[in-house]
Write a structure and sequence with these properties.
35% of the residues lie in helices and 27% in strands. It has 449 residues and is α+β, with helices and mostly antiparallel strands. The strands form six sheets. An eight-stranded antiparallel β-sheet has the order 13-12-9-10-11-14-21-19, with helices on both faces. Helix 4 links the parallel strand 4 and strand 5. Helix 4 runs antiparallel to helix 5 and helix 12 runs antiparallel to helix 13. It is globular. The mean pLDDT is 97. Bound molecules: adenosine-5'-diphosphate (2 copies) and magnesium ion. The site of one adenosine-5'-diphosphate has 21 residues, from strand 6, strand 8, strand 12 and strand 13.
Length: 449
């Protein structure tokens, strides 16, 4: 096994990965920005290296500084977490060239799947259903022509998109031209690539994704699905596994299709196939994320499998010790993202010092975080400061457990979104389980009436 791993991330996910390494007897190297001198990941790792100023472009996205830190500390592998450099093919390539194992997909695979229009093509030819739509658009003229064929409403999506950015909804032909320009410009700024394509807008839709894990010997297993339809601005807020809205047949179909998608590209590592599902329960490939996902925790809860440890193992070349039939889904798990933001005031991000912190406990209650009492949340990074995860024998039990855990949790000094999470858990549409990606918008609208 690896002797030493560098973790190229911060926050709760850096802490999560350090914990897995410690349990596996692997030494850890943290990298931190000048603003993260007092961050938990900086303290928890065996060694810590400062890699630059607070802004991510100068530190956590600074490939040279991170590679240098790995070389200087003798780390054999780099775990990129999620976000940041986790889906950056140039970084994966740099690791490969420097003989450092990138704990994730190969640079080629990241490139292949990161091009969302290319990924659509690959999946289509593998027999995986994709949303009706277009290839990469050459210009706005072509967009209007194909837009008429696809029909409205439709979505213009950035080929390099991620985190819900670079997506524009177009209701009618007149809106197409300005939306094309806006999406392209936003994508250019956010991803350095203005390329866009179109997809038919599915409404009402559910976001359901399947976790897959592949080793270097051609074995691929699926680990159940995650229901991620509670979203705001195309960003997930609460996730659960299994999805409460699908029957066994659909579930099996989803798993089979996800496996087919993984096999089509000979996927190695941990990955997620994201599907969009319409109200007739038809599902279509949306994209593949070639990395560890924020919401991997709900899959860990229902399968009992530590995904981060397995991600590290398969990167080292360990063969999967389980077969598809060994994977059992037990009970029901929910994750609430705890964000330092004011959900009832335009979700404005909050910074400040945590004066008092009490984390909920009890059986099957997990809180993944990197904050501690006295910690000052810096203004430079993502507003997600923790994830509360519960596991119940049934969905009803999980909901009750989550409500109790949210009520027990005290994070004093900064405004967080626990009140909104509680309202979601008590919302009728959520309780029925058959909710769409528009549920949260509806909840917020009704609230303001
Ligand atoms: P998913 O839920 O599909 O894994 P998201 O897009 O919701 O993906 O989350 C990934 C996003 O998290 C990144 O795009 C980035 O904005 C954000 N992010 C990156 N690094 C961190 C971090 N260390 N802590 C919290 N959020 C991060
Ligand atoms: P990103 O790379 O930013 O995660 P995705 O392609 O995964 O982009 O889409 C993000 C979200 O946008 C989805 O989770 C879903 O809620 C919504 N979405 C994407 N494509 C469609 C579609 N064709 N119809 C309806 N909603 C969609
Ligand atoms: Mg996505």
């Amino acid at each position: 096994m690896f002797q030493k791993i560098l973790i190229a991330n911060r926050g709760e996910i850096a802490v999560r990965i350090i914990r897995a390494c410690k349990e596996m007897g692997i030494k850890t190297v943290a990298v931190y920005s000048q603003a993260d001198k007092e961050a938990m990941h900086t303290f928890l790792a065996d060694e810590s290296v400062c890699i630059g100023p607070p802004q991510v472009k100068d530190s956590y996205l600074n490939m040279q500084a991170i590679i240098s830190a790995a070389v200087n500390t003798g780390a054999e592998a780099i775990h990129p977490g999620y976000g940041l450099l986790s889906e950056n093919p140039a970084f994966a390539k740099l690791c490969e060239d420097c003989n450092i194992t990138f704990i994730g997909a190969s640079s080629e695979m990241i490139k292949q799947m990161g091009d969302k229009d290319q990924a659509r093509k690959t999946m289509k030819s593998a027999g995986v259903p994709v949303v009706a739509g277009s290839d990469l658009l050459e210009d706005v003229h072509q967009a209007t022509q194909l837009g008429a064929e696809i029909g409205f409403p439709l979505l213009i999506k950035a080929k390099a998109g991620g985190g819900g950015r670079g997506i524009r909804k177009v209701e009618k032909m007149e809106e197409l031209q300005p939306a094309f320009a806006a999406a392209s410009a936003e994508a250019e700024v956010a991803f350095g690539d203005g390329g866009v394509y179109m997809e038919k807008f599915i409404y009402p839709a559910k976001h359901i994704e399947v976790q897959i894990l592949g080793d270097k010997y051609g074995n691929i297993i699926t680990l159940g699905e995650r229901e991620c339809s509670v979203q705001r601005n195309n960003q997930k807020v609460l996730e659960e596994s299994p999805s409460p809205a699908i029957d066994e047949r659909t579930r099996e179909n989803l798993q089979k299709t996800a496996k087919k998608a993984g096999e089509a590209v000979k996927y190695i590592g941990l990955g997620t196939i994201e599907f969009i599902m319409d109200k007739e329960k038809n599902f279509y490939f949306m994209e593949m994320n070639t990395r560890l996902q924020v919401e991997h925790t709900v899959t860990e809860a229902v399968t009992g499998i530590d995904l981060v440890k397995w991600q590290i193992r398969v990167a080292y070349g360990v063969k999967l010790n389980m077969k598809q039939e060994d994977v059992a889904i037990n009970g029901s798990a929910i994750e609430c993202r705890i964000n330092a933001e004011d959900p009832f005031n335009n979700f404005i991000p909050q910074v400040g010092k945590i004066n008092l912190l009490h984390i909920a406990g009890g059986p099957k209650v997990r809180f993944d975080t990197a904050v501690y009492q006295g910690y000052e949340i810096p203004p430079f990074y993502d507003s997600m400061i923790g994830k509360l995860i519960v596991h119940g024998n049934t969905r009803e039990e999980a909901i009750r457990k989550m409500k109790a855990a949210l009520c027990e949790t005290v994070i004093d000094g900064v405004t967080v979104n626990t009140e909104l999470q509680l309202e979601i858990l008590e919302y009728e549409d959520f309780i029925t389980g058959d909710y769409s990606t528009f549920m949260l918008e509806k909840l917020l609208e009704n609230r303001n009436k």
